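Re-run with default settings, no changes from the original entry. Doing this only to confirm the output is reproducible before filing.
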Amino acid sequence: MDDTATEARAPQAHALPIGHMRDGDVEALVSLWERAGLIRPWNDPRADIALARRGPHSTILVARDGGTVVGSVMVGHDGHRGWIYYLAVDPALTRQGLGRALAHTAEDWLQARGVPKLMLLVRPENEQVRAFYVASGYIEEPRIVFTKRLDGK
């Protein structure tokens, strides 16, 4: 995939390129997600990466500082709703506009595919992340989410 195809609207305050992840980025992504506090024991990040890269309805976008992965967002859709996951910025680079640029790039990726709505999940106690999304123009919608584990975990 063309690494520059998703840079259309990303704010340039951070001046880092954002493009599709590469085959050799898996361990760098897992490390970033660990540093950003996104890993949960019941989610295998390597399996999540493999699943996201398997088909045309999802991708993982990364920001690079030189050759180092310093930001990411996983984005996908079901044809009606888009979802973002694993929005992460290296803790040393927070509050510089990179998170917002990653979110905008994911939005652009979905819009280019005709997806009309973007959704994401945030744990209720995560006030900092909730504030980030509100400041980025997202609204909190009251919904009840049902889940069912299909992997036996």
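The CA atoms of residues 21 and 61 lie 6 Å apart. The beta strands are 18-20, 58-65, 68-77, 81-89, 117-119.
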